[in-house]
Design brief:
This protein is of the alpha/beta class and about 170 residues long. It has a single domain, classed as Rossmann fold (3-Layer(aba) Sandwich), CATH 3.40.50. It is built from five helices and five strands, in the order H-E-H-E-H-E-E-H-E-H. Strand 1, helix 2 and strand 2 form a beta-alpha-beta unit. Helix 2 crosses helix 5. The longest helix is centred in the C-terminal third of the chain and has 20 residues.
């Protein structure tokens, strides 16, 4: 809590947006590392601090709940394998529209279900807004670094989509 010189609370300073950009996936498993590549590009364009955190994670499933606690808004960048989509396709979802996604990195249960559990166990502490950018991947079954060409080509479009979402949340680049 911020206190002014005259001893009064300053609510406008306490109302700083807390946003998290969370890139999921293991960069040692080929295309599963695409979100980490996107995260590095976002780090070049965004200034952290003042309520914005950019981080990568290899955890998935229910462990994501603890990572999101205390943030107002969370943008998840997630490698996916969705039937009927092609490697390099990107798609943006909210919790209400992400049921059909098969998350390559967040494999221990659906993100939607984990968000529901988080709200049940931590009422009022989960983000009020969550967006997910899914990037369709091809090769996640082999330990290797680097992306397949179709997935690598999706990185610039994914960065632009992330910047669009963040701008809508009032977060601009440097």
């Amino acid at each position: 809590m911020s206190i002014s010189d005259d001893g009064h609370r300053c609510p406008e300073e306490d109302a700083v947006l807390k946003a998290l950009v969370l890139a999921l996936g293991n960069s040692l498993k080929g295309d599963e590392g695409v979100a980490q590549v996107v995260l590095e590009e976002l780090r070049k364009r965004l200034r952290t601090g003042d309520g914005l955190e950019l981080t990568g994670s290899v955890i998935g499933g229910i462990a994501l709940i603890n990572r999101m606690l205390g943030f107002d808004k969370v943008l998840i960048i997630d490698p996916d394998q969705t039937p009927g989509r092609s490697p390099g396709d990107i798609h943006t979802h909210t919790p209400d529209t992400m049921e059909e996604m098969l998350h390559a990195a967040s494999d221990a249960g659906s993100l939607k279900r984990n968000l529901e559990l988080g709200e049940k166990f931590y009422p009022g502490q989960m983000p009020k807004e969550v967006a997910v950018i899914g990037i369709e991947v091809e090769d996640i079954d082999h330990f290797r670094e680097g992306l397949t060409p179709a997935v690598a080509a999706a990185v610039p479009k994914t960065v632009e989509e992330a910047m669009r979402i963040l701008k809508g949340w009032g977060i601009d680049g440097t």
